[in-house]
Amino acid sequence: MHQNALRFIEFKSGMQTSLADGDFEVHYQPIVDIESNKLISMEALVRWHHPEKGMVSPADFIPVAEETGLILPLSEWVLRTLCHQIATGHANGYKDFWVAVNLSARQFETDVPRLVRSILPESAIPPSALGLEITEGIAMKNVERNIEMLNELPQRCLNISIDDFGTGYSSLAYLKRFLLNTLKIDRSFIIDIEENPDDQEITKAIIAMGQKLNLKLWRKSWKRVSSWKY
Questions:
Q1: Does residue 203 lie within any of the structural domains?
Q2: Which end of the chain is less packed: N or C, by CB atoms within 10 Å?
Q3: DSSP letter string, 95-150
């Protein structure tokens, strides 16, 4: 217990220092169309390059950031950095994809539309170049407020995604009201899909629902699945 408390304090202090010193980095994970094998988007991921410990796992520092509230300045830094890096890519001719960033639970309790509206003009990128992701669990907590907040965003251009879809209890009526663009199917349904008939049926149902709602569908998995096309 004592060691955990010391570790918590150490991480909190280290993150405060690293935010000021620029030790955090934005890394990018490609999102590829499995039919054309073309890059269609990227996901921005925050990484902490500690000056003494090296790369610190997000599983270690994100919970501390959430609990202490440091996730708010960290998330704002990620969003601002991401938008400026997108602008740099556009200036060099890379305009054919958009980049998504995940919104934390704490960040979603703040005025996200105000933050987005302030950062987009700074970087001079179109809203269509940016995507915001929220997990299904966050989306279904205080649903009416969340729908109202998302509807205040530049919805016609901004890409809105539900992450880890299938692990919560989303209502189809609510999904329509969120005005989403994309569902990201949770990897737990994909990892063993070739051997698990239940996962196959659940995935088929999610795909059918997404198609009815005119949503893009992404799968989350590091493993190549040969029988993905259902």
A1: yes
A2: N
A3: -S-EEEEEPPHHHHTS-HHHHHHHHHHHHT--GGGEEEEEEHHHHTSSHHHHHHHH
